Amino acid sequence: MSTTIKGQDGKSRCRWASAAPEFIDYHDREWGYPVDDDIRLFEKICLEGFQSGLSWRTILAKRENFRAAFLGFDFKKVAEFTEQDVERLLQDEGIVRHRGKIEATINNAKCAKKMVAEAGSLAAFLWSYEPDPKELAKPQTLSVSDTSKALSKALKKKGWKFVGPTTVYAFMQAMGLINDHAEECVFRSEAQKARDEFKKPALRPNHAEYLTSVIFADN
Q1: pLDDT 10s digits, 44-99
Q2: Which residue is catalytic, options 48, 127, 160, 169?
């Protein structure tokens, strides 16, 4: 089966974009384009965690409700949430009412604050895991990779939850850490152009040295 499908506008897109009307704009304008804003990155990784066991359509339909419930995914604010906030969110019909995922989001907000203090930004840490293009598999043939396993492991070491390798791979696709648009998708070149023009955020020097020591230690 082809990985692309032609839309009513005559453009070939990744086949998954045709699964629901609301996917088109998300696919065309957001999915696979590089992100360096910490708030957006935190939102994306949290929503991928909420998606675990569910469909992305469910999450995308509720995204504005999630944003309202978690204060725009400002992790500095979410890190201050209490048990009362957990109970409040469990009553919010506009989001996915899963205690473990809600608590993980609050936990991850605290981890995000620490990561910013250590690495300079979430973006710097996450982009340090950008894989070598030569090592990438053919687009849309994987749901997990060596890089997603490594990043998942690193996040878990730092205390993050609901960041398994499959969730992390979906996050990598969404945030543009890889360009996984199908080869025949007309938006693959648009995403690649954005990646080519993207200035990769740099880690703080001391944290870069730390990561290097961890990598060599693991090997």
Answers
A1: 999 999 999 999 999 999 999 999 999 999 999 999 999 999 999 999 999 999 99
A2: 48
Measured CA to CA in angstroms, residue 66 lies from 9, 43, 97, 172, 217 at distances of 31, 9, 11, 20, 39
- Annotated catalytic, 210? no
Residues 209, 167: Cα–Cα separation, whole Å: 27
Q: With bands split at pLDDT 50, 70 and 90, how would you rate the model's confidence at 207?
A: low
- Asked if residues 194 and 176 have their Cβ atoms less than 8 Å apart, the reply is yes
Distance CA 172, CA 194 (A): 15
Query: Quick check: helix, strand or coil at residue 117?
Result: helix
Q: Which helix (H) or strand (E) holds 13?
A: strand 12-14
Type of residue numbered 210 = Y
Active site residue 56: yes
Cβ pair 127, 12 in contact under 8 A: no
Mean pLDDT (whole number) for 158-187: 98
93 has catalytic annotation: no
Per-residue tokens: 38: 């910490």
Task: Specify whether the CB–CB gap between 3 and 139 falls below 8 A.
Answer: yes
Which helix (H) or strand (E) segment holds residue 6: the answer is: strand 4-6
Tens-place pLDDT, residues 108-165: 999 999 999 999 999 999 999 999 988 899 999 999 999 999 999 999 999 999 999 9
Q: Which of 56, 127, 160, 169 is catalytic?
A: 56
